[in-house]
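Weekly modeling sync, notes
Attendees: S.R. (lead), two postdocs, one rotation student

Agenda item 3: backlog of single-chain predictions. S.R. asked that every request posted to the team notebook include the full sequence so nobody has to chase files. The rotation student volunteered to paste the first one in as an example of the format we agreed on. Action items at the bottom.

Example entry:
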Amino acid sequence: MDQIKAVILDLDQTVLDRTRTFRAFAASFINEYFFHHHGRDELVEDMMVRDEDGYKDKRELFSEVLTEYPWAGADKPELEQLMDYYKVNYVNNAILMDQGLEVLEYLRKKYQTGLITNGRTDIQYGKIDRMGIRGHFDIILVSEEAGVKKPDAVIFRMALQALGLSPEQCVYVGDHPVNDVAGAANVGMKTIWLQSNQPWREELNVKPDHVIRSLQQLMEIL
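Predicted structure, as returned to the notebook:
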């Protein structure tokens, strides 16, 4: 890693603890709409499963919630009401990974830093600002705003151009084997896989340069 000049990170389940964030949101949602229901904990767990670690389209998720959950007839909201609740309250539950701020401050002292994340512009920037970390990055690319998403090589090359660096001078850190590790490796970046909820895909023709189980392990490697 001697030639590395920049560290570029994924957001969800890398810098943001998405599991805890969505669980906190799901609990607030269930308490809002099913406060008097005796099975609130079970509904929270059901939302966690249905969410598919963030990869299920939210309109599909809340359409299922409207169809499958025990709404009292007259109190059943419209889909758009639930989408509005999500846009406001999910962002407000954003939680950094353990020692996330310490790690970002450590990286900023040694490298240029960047963030590449798939998702909606308002939601992703909302989480970034809720955690107060926008100023910790030299560049931030959100897929909706960029017009392309990981693992497409274009979004990684956009980051390289913005930083003024070659692929060999950058390491990418993320939790998703395809979107993060394979996407970055295929443009020539070094990669660090944060092993979390996404299993490794054995069909991939790339391997990460390092595997970590927590974000703070970056301070041991970089």
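Discussion: group reviewed the output briefly. The beta strands are 6-9, 112-117, 139-142, 170-174, 190-194, 210-212.
Action items: rotation student to repeat for the remaining queue; S.R. to check formatting next week.
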